[in-house]
TrEMBL record:
Keywords: Membrane, Transmembrane, Transmembrane helix. The keyword Transmembrane applies. It comes from Cymbomonas tetramitiformis. It comes from the Eukaryota. GO terms for molecular function: hexosyltransferase activity. InterPro entries: Glyco_trans_2-like, Nucleotide-diphossugar_trans. The lineage of its organism: Eukaryota, Viridiplantae, Chlorophyta, Pyramimonadophyceae, Pyramimonadales. This is Glycosyltransferase 2-like domain-containing protein. CDD domains: Glyco_tranf_GTA_type (cd00761).
Amino acid sequence: MASTISRNFVVSSILAILVVNTCFLYWAATTTSSYAAPPLRETFEGFSQGAETAVEPAGQVGPGILRGGLERLISGYASLEGEVQHLPLLDALPCEYDLIEDDMLPLTVLLVVDYTTGGAALHRHDQLWAGMAHMLTEQGTKGVTVLFAAGAETDWAQTAVRNARNRYRGNTISFATLPPPRVPRSAPPQVAVAYDVYEWLQNEHQFDVVYFIDWGGLGYFAMTAKKQGLAFHDIELGVLLTGPRVWEAVYGAEAPALHTPASLEASFMERLMVEKADVVVARGNFLVQWLRDRGWIFPPKTVVATFPAPHTRLPASQRGGPQSGVPIVQELVYVGALDAQSGLLLFLEAVERVLCEGGEQKNLGLKALTFSGPNALLDPRQRDVAACPNSPPEGSSPPAECVYGHEHIMRTMQNWQKKRCDGKRDRDCIAQIPSVTVETQWEMSTLLSYLVDGRGRLAVLPAPMDSPDTILQQIMEVKAPFISSDVGMARELISAGQHDHVLFKPRPAMLSKLLNQVLGSGGAPIAEDAANRSIAVAPLQWKRWHDCFSKMYGQRISVNQDGALKPAPQENGPGVLVTCVLVHHDRQRHLASALASLRAQDYPHLEVVLVDDGSSSAEALRYLEEISAEDSWFTQRGWRALRLHGMYVGAARNAGWRAAKGQYVLFMDDDNYAKPHEVSRMVEVAQRTGADVVTCANDFMPPGVDAPALMAIPEGRYIPLGPALMPGVLRNVFGDANALFARSALDALSGGWPEETAYAVQDWELHTRAALRGLRLEVIPEALYWYRTTDNSMARSPATSANNLQFHLRPYVETLGPLGELATYTQQITLHAQALEQQVRRLREGTRSTELIVQSLYRQHCESRSRSTQRAGSRGHNFIQNARFDAVTAEGKLIGWIPHGNRGFSIIEGGRRGGGKALLLDLPSVAEVAGATQHVYIGQKDAAPLILQGWSRAVDGGISGVGEDDDYSLYADLFFVDGTHQWGYTLPFRASSTEWQHVHGVIHPSKPLLRIELVCLLRWRRGRAVFDDIRITSLDDGVCDVLDPPAAQSTM
């Protein structure tokens, strides 16, 4: 019980995070660009349609802006601000070269697919890479490689490679996975995989074009390195924009797509990857404008293209169209996954309306329904709430609360059977039910062949949120009749003159209206592609683009014949002075090592300001005196030392930078060891990008090492993410204190570093403040220094943890006002949920141990008891009379039970497990109550626990309606010997299951029980349920049935 309660609380906490994060995430999703806050206020103004906005200082958000943004969020998050602006198509990109076939050089292309998670997005991306890879090989590309990128903890990528190699055996497509990293990553899994992709690309530098599918943002670090001028100068890095997480959170089947800290970080990488890409190829104008309305920045080369479909094209002789006649529609073919997100519920309700309207006079032309798509959870949210697998597990039954599309279709058919007219005059009855076929394993080619065989089949694509573009285009290519929901990119893909004939708003009434038109018109609509958006022309568009790039690539390598990377131009001029502020306290040995690393820097314009914060050890004081002497190497270099009196690290850093002469200030602690190019690399990136703050990865120094060897293998690597403000509420994603600041940035940061004592994450707060103020923060994806962790490090001090949580969120509250307070709440509830998750894991481990002990006790107690009760012919004393509902009076009344509610009960033959009579509760409408009550005499002298248990199952398709769990249950009111009572002890049954269920519970009376009023209850729902074998026993008499209940059987 404790495990269940904790698990449910974790779920509730996570749902609460979703509610809180909705507003805060919306702000973060529109302000976490690498260009941060000058657009911050502008972005909010863009969302505040009609809202009053006051003029605030740059970088601050006023109440009018917040109100407008929240109104926009509540009223229409999925809407566009204006008309869709049409982007150029892929083949309309200007090419500076004459495309002469003989001059073309074959390209090598890499496709990167995120395999860290499963779900609908992965299935869609499998279709995309397969279509792209096949098209590229047909066009004579020199080489195509597909990288299945996943972390070490998932085996999906390895399985995908094996399957792909088998499927494409003999093809020139290569497949790869990421090797295990040499250095352990200190980063969340998605961030670590993106970093692994970056390192893999550096080692496998053999590609001309690299396409990253947007989901997962796995090109983030590679594109960051290119924009910083550090790598990939001769590689075109592109993004195939299909629908990132923020889009999926509103339109897609990934429900929810933004619900964990890791998913927020992945969303940030997706956004910045698009911003930094050389080219973005989007599947539609609507998608690009929707993201732009939400503050996304796109590169100049952003185009729209039709993504090639997998190789499923039919020969021309097998295609439909006017040449084969326009058949009368007799069959509807549902196309899509069997879940709510793909439109299954919408489709079933619309078809029911078509069948019901007109009663027996209805046209009976609709003969069949076919459902084509993978079986899936009807509601994908159950993946998180009930731990349901994405599809029914093979060879075993899923949890009863996990409802899948195929099961729901069968239930709907059973409900339709009950609505048959059969001579009734009910205007909502169904005259004739179509035959139903469910195909969950069809390949696309099979579906296309089925649609065009001339037998009056109409494809219906009812996705209520986003259109399945590739499937829609393949259906149009074979000239198959179809209708589609008017969502997503559907309107862009279909010729404008045919929109009214084939598109419907995703509402059951609108779909049923269009179906009635089609069924009554005698012909199926066949739509044409919009100009230049068909699958047939897609390969030509992609070929022109790749030919142009091939020509550009040829021009590059003619200058650089060996194909090696050319160094990026050095933009920082001579004389740019950098001051390194090095803070020290009583660690003389580390200080000497840190100073040695600074002496070895390859950047010539470097001064050091050493700030000693009250050292008292003899060794430290002696060393400081030595290097401060006039003739010391330290002083001869013009380096300086400041002596403070224990002001703590924040005040020491502030004193150092205020004494600095440099245009840039690098902060460093005495337990850091700079790699030789740290300063030059940071200055280079700052100058090239215009960054105000530069952070980087760092390597963990092996223990006991003062000066790591050049090729030493680190203990681990910390990988910061960047200015991701929403994830930054929950962890430091920005970088370490070892960071380069422009002097002007420090002047703008209201005093610089926080100066509280015993505060370990001052870097977290300062970087957050910088990002919120609109300063540009760049993260170099390269470890530029070694980090040494010791036993007395601040980060390891437990005394600092409370202050860490207290202070680092101050910038959110100070900058964002009321909205910033949500950051504090979000962090606290997330930490609480994480703690509860750990508790649940411990409870599960304890529960498993208890189960093993109970199994042993069962074998010792219950098996011997079973032998004795079999000899005696009894299962122990049951306080309930007529527990199996088989004793009736001569008048046919059930002995021991009285009706409950306005519907009461009936007895049904053959309903019991194994045959015989059973109790039947029948509710034809949700406003009624059915039940059977028994007053059970207990008569205890001393309080003792009792076991209540019983069996039930829903029949005829299950129990529908929304209500409380107790609405379908064993319900007990307890009456004590002293005249007091306790209401409402319940054991609920699962309304979604049609299998026999056994429930049990232990009643722990606080005082002796006189009687129990027991009800077999079904109320305020719609449906029918049978009950059997209800028992109230002592703990000893009932425990064996609880541990090993008799097998459930039924003849119904």
